[in-house]
Specification:
Blueprint: H1 7-16, E1 22-28, H2 29-34, H3 37-41, E2 50-55, H4 59-71, E3 76-81, H5 86-90, H6 101-114, E4 119-124, H7 133-145, E5 150-154, H8 165-168, H9 176-185, E6 190-194, H10 200-206, E7 212-214, H11 217-221, H12 229-232, H13 243-259, H14 264-268, H15 281-291, H16 299-318
Parallel strand pairs: 1-2, 2-3, 3-4, 4-5, 5-6, 6-7
Protein name: tRNA-dihydrouridine(20/20a) synthase
Function: Catalyzes the synthesis of 5,6-dihydrouridine (D), a modified base found in the D-loop of most tRNAs, via the reduction of the C5-C6 double bond in target uridines. Specifically modifies U20 and U20a in tRNAs.
Cofactor: FMN
Length: 319
Amino acid sequence: MMDWTDRHERAFLRTISQRALLYTEMVTTGAILHGDRDRFLAFDDVEHPVALQLGGSDPDDLAACAREGALRGYDEINLNLGCPSDRVQRGRFGACLMTEPDLVADCVAAMIGAVDIPVTVKTRIGVDEQDSYEALQAFVETIAAAGCRSFTIHARKAWLSGLSPKQNREVPPLRYEVVYALKRDFADLEIVLNGGVQTLEEAEAHLQQVDGVMIGRAAYQTPYILAEADRRIFDEPVAPRSREQIVEDFLPYVERQLCLGVPLKSITRHMLGLFNGLPGARAWRRHLSEEAHLPGAGPEVVLAALARWQEAGQKRQAA
């Protein structure tokens, strides 16, 4: 979810669900150790619970970055072993590390030794021709022996060459039964399923077999699917807020960020899908897209976009 789940997106999603665990974009150890740490690690208190997702393969570097994340208040440190892009492979992190389980175990052990918060792993069911269930079992066993108790499993294998990252999300078939089998065979581990989940109904069905479900692009493109998550998934006695309430509740965050010099467009780009599937959604998207980038754009742009959505919906109903 590079360039998608930045801190403004996470703050927006938190307005919709109070309980869902949110993840940062994958941040490389090099970016943290040698770059602008505030840029890569800053987050707002409203985002909790939030996990820092790291990419790297050096145990000492990962330990140092995990320690920095814990000091900054993250609730979890996650090691990404699922990204198959060429750039990631050149950096020797992501999905290619599934071929080096002993190194991953060393990395996980170093991270666990550095922090007092959970260290988790996100991975695939296999890579290239290393895609047997036995190989996946052995991989999980090795990492679990290093102390990891929670695995998020993307239910597709990754091809390290020949497919783009987008194709790797679509071409290899989803094999949910493999993730289910992992939970049966590793009952003491937390197994979270990822890949292709589009609705809460699908998530609820998977939760009959596994401990958790990660929703990625669907939550970005149609964020309102999370509106009932607190009630349906976490058994909270709360009614979902309307889309209008979500916009209004998010405005104080928008105002705070504008005061810090953040351009409105950097925030509203994550809000475009809020009304997807409803009459007037295009009017909402168009107004934000056309107005949020202008100099001096402020909360009034968001309120005007909301009014455009309401007007378009009323006209559709009248017709």
